Amino acid sequence: MEKSKEIVKGKHGIFHPVAELLTPRFPGLRKKLDFADMDETATAFVEKVIGSTLFVSIALLLVSLLFLVRYLIPLFWIAPLIIVIPFLVFNYLMLYPDAMLVKRTKELDYEIVFAGRHVVIALKSGMPLFETFVGASSGYGEVSREFKKIVDKIMLGVPTTQAIREVTQNNPSKYFVRMMMQIANSVASGADVGSSLEGVLDQISKEQMIQLKEYSQKLTPAVMFYMLFGIIVPSIGVVFAAAVFSFISGGQYGASVLIPVFLLIAIVQFLFLGLIESSRPRYLI
Fold first, then answer.
1. What pLDDT is stored for residue 152 in this prediction?
2. What CA–CA distance (Å, rounded) separates 96 from 61?
3. Which of 95, 107, 112, 265 has CA 20 to 30 A from 47's CA?
């Protein structure tokens, strides 16, 4: 399957031989790309990362060189950066599938309960299972895309239970997999799909409510931590540092000192707020 995709993609780039050597070092990359719904081979992705690493590393090395020259720092410090910067950039860019996987999981979990209830209501009203899937294949974001995949497979002649299992194999959401496997098992055993699915949705809804409560409990100490290290310490620290620099240098300090300090404070606050935002559960209950 991997080779067939590469043939379809066409010509390879100049970094393809290197990418082929590095790809075996990331055995889980293929599965991550499937879970993240990224339609490319592992080798093609590594090839892109190598190219991006080259350009980003050159830019960062030039900035580092200008910094060393500006502050009269010995240029031999650029030597370790030539190794460290590409290594860090490459490993950082290799985390992109993980980030996309997390994003897709959150999008799937966001409307999973409402999409499931749509299926339950449709089934209890007497609608056939296939027509129910067709109705759920729009209006529920990423969940609808998964239902659309199932519908497309069924229209091609794939049995319903097999189509469900094939789609759930590459789905990162444990809630979606649980819901769809319940449907598949109910269809296979001849049980009432609507009633069994309703019980699963109630359990999923309770689990999501528990996660929201846990997040609210973690939020209070996180806000206190932010107030301390994001507002109070930087404010007092800047005032104290300004007084110390004024005493030591006789007031001879300016933008070359203040700009990096303010930039560092802004980066810390941005990272902290981003961490709080990314850890917030996103559910539509």
1. 97
2. 22
3. 107
